[in-house]
Amino acid sequence: MSSHALSLIGRDSQLFLLERALSDARRGQGGVVFLIGEAGVGKSRLAAEAVGTALAAGTRVLRGRSSTTGPAVPFRPLTEALLALFRSGQALDDLELGPYRPVLGRLIPDWDTGERDSSSMVILGEAVLRLLIASDRGQGQLLLLEDLHDADPETLGVLEYLVDNLENTPILLLATVRTDFSDALDLAQSARRRGVAGLVELPPLSREQTHGLIAAQLGTDAGRVPAPILERLWEDSAGSPYLVEELLQSMIGAGTLVQGSEGWRVVGDPRSDVPSTLARGILRRIDRLGAEGLTLLSAAAVLGRRFPLTVLQRMTGVDDRSLLSHLHAGVAARLVIPDEPAPDWYSFRHSLTVEALFTQLTPGQRADLARRGAEAVRELHPDLPGEWCAQAAGLHAEAGDRSAAGRLFAEAGRRALAAGALGSAVTLLSRAESLLAPGADPQGRAEALEHLLPALAESGDFARAFELAEHLHALDIAGLSPSRLAVLHTRLAKVAHTAGRWSDGNRQIARARQVLGAAPDEAASAAVDVTAAYLALDTPGADRTQHAEKLARSAADAAERHQLPAVACQAWELLATVARERDPEESRAMLDQALATAEHHRLPLQRMYAATRKGGNAWLARGDTGELLAAREEALRLGSVSIMHTVDGILVLDAVLRGSYDRAREAAAECLAVVRRLRLAPAVRYVLMARAALEAHRGDRAAMEAAVASFAEWDGAGSQEEPLTLGMARAFCALMEEDRELARAELRAVTALEEGNPSTYHLSGTHGIGLLLDVLAGDADRARHEEVSATAVGRMRWNRQFVLLADAVLLGREGRGARAAAAVEEALGEAEPYPAALHLGLRLISDAAHADGWGDPVAWLRRAEHHFHEQDVLPVVNACRAALRRLGAPVHQHRTGTSGIPEELRALGVTVREFEVFGLLAERLGNKDIADRLFISPRTAEKHIASLITKTGAANRADLCARSAAARRPGRGV
Question: Comparing 448 with 806, which gets the higher pLDDT?
Answer without folding.
Answer: 806
